[in-house]
Design a protein that fits this description.
Number of domains: 1
Largest sheet: none
Order of helices and strands: HH
Number of helices: 2
Structural class: mainly alpha
Shape: elongated
Helix content: over 70%
Number of strands: 0
Radius of gyration: 16 Å
Strand content: under 5%
Distance between the termini: 15 Å
């Protein structure tokens, strides 16, 4: 159950980052080098935070395979 909660939290967090990037108009500036770099850093940080959130919320349930 904790894995499902973790995935839901990740979904909400990632969508909020997407909404933030969409609201400031990132896709209008994809050809600008500075915007592209900052967007890439934002994507990388989002991925790292997603992984951290998953293991922080799921804890030991993340390592169970459900075979038991």
């Amino acid at each position: 159950m904790r894995v499902k909660i973790a995935l839901f939290v990740i979904l909400i967090f990632t969508y909020s980052i997407y909404y933030l990037l969409e609201s400031i108009g990132v896709n209008e500036h994809h050809d600008d080098l500075v915007w592209a770099f900052l967007t890439s850093v934002t994507f990388l940080l989002t991925l790292l935070i997603d992984v951290y959130l998953f293991f922080a919320i799921a804890k030991e349930d993340a390592y169970k395979w459900g075979i038991d």
